[in-house]
Amino acid sequence: MRAAVLREYGAPLDVVDTMETIETGPGRVKVRIRATGMCHSDLSGMTGKLGVPVPFVPGHEGAGEVVEVGGGVTSVAPGDHVIVNFIPACGECANCRRGDGHLCTAMMYKAAGTPNFRLDGQPVFSLIGCGTFAEEVVLPHQSVVRIDKDVPFDIAALIGCGVTTGTGAVLNTAGVREGSTVAIVGCGGVGIAAMMAARLAGASQILAVDPSPAKRELVTRFGATAAVSPEDAEAAAAELTDGQGLDYTFEVVGRPSTAEAAWKLARRGGTVVVVGVGARDDLLQLSLGTLATQSKNLVGSVYGGMDVPRFMQQLVGLWRDGKLDLEAMITRRLQLEDINEGFDLMKTGDAIRTVVEL
Ligand code: APR
Ligand code: ZN
Ligand code: ZN
């Protein structure tokens, strides 16, 4: 089958047509991927920032159809449409028992460390155990979320990472309240999803911060009430709030400097949610003299901040009710052969989401 593989950090992806998946063993399912979004974490993996072993197949924002199930799998059957869930919940650890399946690491690390492809007889890894830049993937059955067949694969794919991560940070982690003021620092796919959720939650002001002029042009469609470049953000926040700062700020880039910017934009007692994924040794500098005295809340948010399958179903419902304009997030469609163009586009900061159809 066809797949895009990264052979060394910093290189472009190599599209091959002789990739093989591992066997659909007990507890596993084989999915024919139909659409996959391109997320910044794929690029971070490809530059070596996330420490993914090479060679690997990137891609973790995907949806498709189950074509085979291994022994003991009863949750899905061939023909079912599914979204790939990159944090499968084991159901048994302390996090899972508490209802926080999104915090389960039992299966994810194992999946990430196990090659799920083969090329020319050699093992090939995948980004966080997924590898959706391939026509077929074999995954633990906990890694797929069954959805109704009326949901187009491209929409379902976006829910696989960016939409869940962005909206969940706002609705679940922060719990943004009606009438509050919000900043979104970084308006890529994840940031735009956060912005739509802030609008849905009834935020009165949504300040979009992004260096891309093209981005600042199009964010009003997703709920932004003002859009500024990073240099102008502090002044804009002060003007909107009489110098107080904003109630909730979201860092959706994944860099220390943008996390610090989000910190500064929040008011005393406000909430700063870090959604972007930096490298392990990227450190955040905060003044200890202000942390307690300003009484701000600093919190991280992973994959929507709640039980992933349950939240994905809620998001499908919100999309169906016309409350999330996910179609508008797709700014480009590509075939797998041209996938490297999607990363060029991502680096400009002008794209929201590029979707590869398989
Ligand atoms: N301030 C604000 N925005 C910035 C800055 C900055 N200094 N630098 C870049 N950006 C903007 C880019 O212009 C772009 O619009 O951040 C956006 C990033 O968008 P994408 O590349 O599409 O990234 P996305 O897929 O949304 O992911 C963002 O969330 O899940 C994590 O790992 C992911 O860390 C990544 C982050
Ligand atoms: Zn992602
Ligand atoms: Zn668990």
The helix content is 25-40%
Question: What is the beta-strand fraction?
Answer: 25-35%
Tally of helical runs? 12
Domain tally: 2
The level 1 CATH classification of the largest domain is Alpha Beta
How many DSSP-defined strands?
Answer: 19
CATH homology superfamily name of the largest domain: Medium-chain alcohol dehydrogenases, catalytic domain
CATH topology of the largest domain: Quinone Oxidoreductase, Chain A, domain 1
Give the CA-based shape.
globular
Low-confidence runs: none
Average pLDDT level: 96
Largest sheet data: 7 strands, mixed
Give the name of the CATH architecture of the largest domain: Alpha-Beta Complex
Radius of gyration: 20 Å
Class of secondary structure makeup: alpha/beta
Describe the structure.
With 358 residues, this protein is of the alpha/beta class. It folds into two domains: 3-160 and 326-357, Medium-chain alcohol dehydrogenases, catalytic domain (Quinone Oxidoreductase, Chain A, domain 1, Alpha-Beta Complex), CATH 3.90.180; 166-302, NAD(P)-binding Rossmann-like Domain (Rossmann fold). It has twelve helices and 19 strands. It has helices spanning 40-46, 94-97, 106-113, 153-159, 162-174, 189-200, 213-218, 233-240, 256-265, 288-291, 308-320, 339-348; strands spanning 3-5, 14-16, 20-21, 28-37, 56-57, 61-69, 81-84, 117-119, 122-126, 136-140, 144-147, 181-185, 205-209, 226-228, 246-251, 266-274, 297-300, 330-335, 353-357. The strands form four sheets. Strands 4, 6, 7, 10, 11, 18 and 19 form a seven-stranded mixed beta sheet that branches. Strands 14-13-12-15-16-17 form a six-stranded parallel beta sheet, with helices on both faces. Strands 3-8-9-5 form a four-stranded mixed beta sheet, with no helix packed on it. Strand 18, helix 12 and strand 19 (353-357) form a beta-alpha-beta unit. Helix 5 crosses helix 6 (189-200). The termini are close together. The relative contact order is 0.16. Adenosine-5-diphosphoribose (APR) is lined by residues 39-41, 44, 162, 165, 185-191, 209-212, 215, 230, 252-254, 258, 275-277, 346, 349. Residues 39, 41, 60-61, 161-162 line the site of one zinc ion (ZN).
